[in-house]
Specification:
Elements (H helix, E strand, L loop, with lengths): L1 H8 L6 E7 L9 H12 L4 E7 L14 H4 L6 H11 L3 E7 L7 H8 L9 E7 L5 H13 L3 E2 L4 E2 L2 H8 L21 H20 L4
Parallel strand pairs: 1-2, 1-3, 3-4, 4-5, 4-6
């Protein structure tokens, strides 16, 4: 009922840009498979322009700036950070695909968050995770980071269970979407549908709120 109300109160005519961030750069990583899958799912929604941002393509130095990015106001000294910031500034919503390492998430992902600030602010973010406990503990920490960046972490998350992880591990990139189909047929309902209902409602609502009045 809540999802139906949310969809009905936000115009689908508002175009939104969704950036899918692949948060692992590990050799032989699994994350490119769910990242390409969720990218395809995003592109099926009307009015959505979805793009994959692979952190392998955005090598950033370790954050070492003497002042907070919140005070730099988008003027970054590193060309690599400026390039990354431009990609994030163009997004209306974000989907982060992340493994769980030792009850947390990859350092390369935290570094990507820490380098910039205003480009993240007042935008929704959702998480697709895998690993121990379906990556739930890593996502719990990522939610705290998102709040501190003035973002809106949505309640639903997609946690990939071990049986889907093992099946998808054998797939090429991009994988056969059918491997992830069980996530839409759980006893709690369509987890993927719930995820995008909330993410896209928030994306359109917050984009409207960020748009200056004429």
């Amino acid at each position: 009922m809540l999802r139906r109300r949310m969809a009905s109160t936000t115009s689908l005519s508002v175009k939104v840009s969704v950036k899918v961030i692949l948060g692992s750069t590990r050799e032989g990583r699994f994350g490119d498979k769910p990242a390409h899958w969720i990218l395809g799912e995003a592109r099926q929604h009307p009015g959505v322009d979805a793009e994959l941002l692979d952190l392998l393509d955005y090598p950033l130095p370790f954050f070492d700036r003497p002042i907070s990015p919140a005070r730099e106001k988008g003027a970054y000294s590193s060309p690599a950070v400026t390039r990354w910031a431009a990609q994030i500034a163009g997004g209306d919503a974000f989907v982060v695909v992340s493994p769980e390492y030792n009850h947390g998430y990859p350092a390369v992902l935290k570094n990507a968050f820490d380098h910039i600030f205003p480009e993240w602010a007042r935008k929704p973010i959702g998480f697709v995770s895998y690993g121990n406990a379906g990556g739930a503990r890593g996502v719990e920490q990522l939610r705290l980071v998102a709040v501190e960046l003035a973002m809106w972490p949505i309640r639903p998350a997609i946690h990939i269970p071990s049986e889907i992880y093992l099946a998808a591990s054998k797939e090429p990139v991009p994988p056969n979407p059918a491997v992830f189909e069980p996530l839409k047929k759980t006893r709690f309902g369509d987890r993927v549908g719930m995820f995008f209902d909330d993410l896209l409602w928030a994306a359109r609502a917050l984009k409207a709120a960020r748009t200056p009045a004429p």
